[in-house]
Amino acid sequence: xxxxxxxxxxxxxxxxxxxxxxxxxxxxxxxxxxxxxxxxxxxxxxxxxxxxxxxxxxxxxxxxxxxxxxxxxxxxxxxxxxxxxxxxxxxxxxxxxxxxxxxxxxxxxxxxxxxxxxxxxxxxxxxxxxxxxxxxxxxxxxxxxxxxxxxxxxxxxxxxxxxxxxxxxxxxxxxxxxxxxxxxxxxxxxxxxxxxxxxxxxxxxxxxxxxxxxxxxxxxxxxxxxxxxxxxxxxxxxxxxxxxxxxxxxxxxxxxxxxxxxxxxxxxxxxxxxxxxxxxxxxxxxxxxxxxxxxxxxxxxxxxxxxxxxxxxxxxxxxxxxxx
Amino acid sequence: xxxxxxxxxxxxxxxxxxxxxxxxxxxxxxxxxxxxxxxxxxxxxxxxxxxxxxxxxxxxxxxxxxxxxxxxxxxxxxxxxxxxxxxxxxxxxxxxxxxxxxxxxxxxxxxxxxxxxxxxxxxxxxxxxxxxxxxxxxxxxxxxxxxxxxxxxxxxxxxxxxxxxxxxxxxxxxxxxxxxxxxxxxxxxxxxxxxxxxxxxxxxxxxxxxxxxxxxxxxxxxxxxxxxxxxxxxxxxxxxxxxxxxxxxxxxxxxxxxxxxxxxxxxxxxxxxxxxxxxxxxxxxxxxxxxxxxxxxxxxxxxxxxxxxxxxxxxxxxxxxxxxxxxxxxxxxxxxxxxxxxxxxxxxxxxxxxxxxxxxxxxxxxxxxxxxxxxxxxxx
Lengths: 324, 380
What we know:
The structure holds two protein chains of two kinds.
Chain A: E1 15-16, E2 19-20, H1 48-57, H2 60-77, H3 114-150, H4 152-166, H5 170-180, H6 187-213, H7 216-223, H8 228-264, H9 276-283, H10 291-319
Chain B: H1 26-34, E1 42-57, E2 63-79, E3 83-87, H2 94-101, E4 109-114, E5 117-118, H3 124-133, E6 134-137, H4 151-161, H5 171-181, H6 198-210, E7 216-220, H7 228-245, E8 248-252, H8 256-262, E9 265-270, E10 273-279, H9 280-285, H10 290-297, H11 304-309, H12 340-344, H13 353-356, E11 365-366
Helix pairs in contact in B: 1-3, 4-5, 4-6, 5-6, 6-7
């Protein structure tokens, strides 16, 4: 390939029938407005993710929700950091008593410390939220991605299957599934959410893979002789993953509230497990006599769900190139 | 798809016989593909190329109810070092031809011979060798570059797929050379596509096409998404690169002026068929097919006096559906010369009888029963 300076590149053009194609000698493209804010050539490469991260760091919604989530994750791993009591060590004599020194949130119907139970309840919610979201994203993302990429029979079967799953009412399905599957831990609940949640992600993944697949750069890679795996991993996956991440982050909040709903109904986690849903269920009958029993776990649940949904919203804004 | 055989697909009787190379093994096929071709010899020969897209009904149990005849039996030769322009209005099958030549779509019937090898039937190593030598520049510079990859990765990926072209340590420098060749600052190697303007992006697309040192570049409307001034830059760059690297171009466009500017020969397509093919002077100054004449009469004329003098041919009606094309001549539904013969007999792409013995520029291949010259541009 011979050496060439950019100034030699454009020679004066001739004239076509009815249109003058002549342009000035040496009108090189360095002069045309290119990168935003006059970025220098020595600057570090910027990707979508680094751009998104820069946006997020400046977004107060993201900072607040990230701090709440960080706090929740820490106390669900080490609840003893902020409480030194046992959530199962209860004294019936103190049942329904309101706050007193050492017990800021008061006591519940069994005489357990509401503050400690609220702190320990975060673990179930965070575990269900994170594990269910991971499971749903992996299963739905892979199934939907393959269906979108290969199309044909595989795609038809998967699309009809998602229709079937969308037809199942969540709470009714949960009641049936969890009364059949034994166990009072978080795992049957996570299994149920993954089973019912994957079609949502699969549809999003399928759609965004189909959109990405039609882009000319995929054709260009094919024209170069790229293999299917290279096209999928280097060209389609990076361009199709953003909507999946956004939907998964928002869904995480709804999975936490679904766990609480199922526990409230008595089929999710069961005592002696500690969960906000169980506490809300137990406190619901005493709302007029002892509202604190209900308000603290319900408030914690609301703040947690809100934090995850706000995070998802901020991530969506940061990943949307149309807003940039 | 069965009705392909009913029509006389062999609509180009006077194209030259293809000298095929019989390669028993893949290695022989690769060797044939790697062999050089002399200037002025045919490098790509298309024979009766057909692409029908099936129309299906039903969600689970699909049954075919028809076919969109996007390309319906076209034949042409591309010679080493020349530019063949292909023009025609939207939906006439130009882009499908490009995809067929790139084997991005598999042809329904017909052959594409590259150095005597039918590339529509190749696979594996031989197909990869063909892809090294036939590259493409895409229409839309905004969608033809992966927004998640840097310019260096986009161009450098060609060397990852074809590692024999550049040794590993040498690739970054080669990418910078390519950026330099297409007139971009080599230091932009770490930038992302969204940091460039449309014209710059198209240059990146051209650099990617050039990376493997191909012999043929298929340009599918490479400038229609660009501003007029930037179009000129890109066209001039492409002409310069053609001289420098001895490239053959197939240049697909709907802008007649640009095609005339860059092409040595021009083919006019209508509804999946070639209407007329010849050198640029033959097509632009001596068109014999009514469709070409109508197209040319629509080209804007900058001179007001010439504009007054020239005759404007305004076609009535729309392009018929390619799923249900008219019988006989495809153009007869909009042609002012159409007679009964046009509905029953498909005109073949051949030099018209009346011009056959003369050596006027009108003596070029034209698929019309009533081919005659008509000065539409008002140049004479």
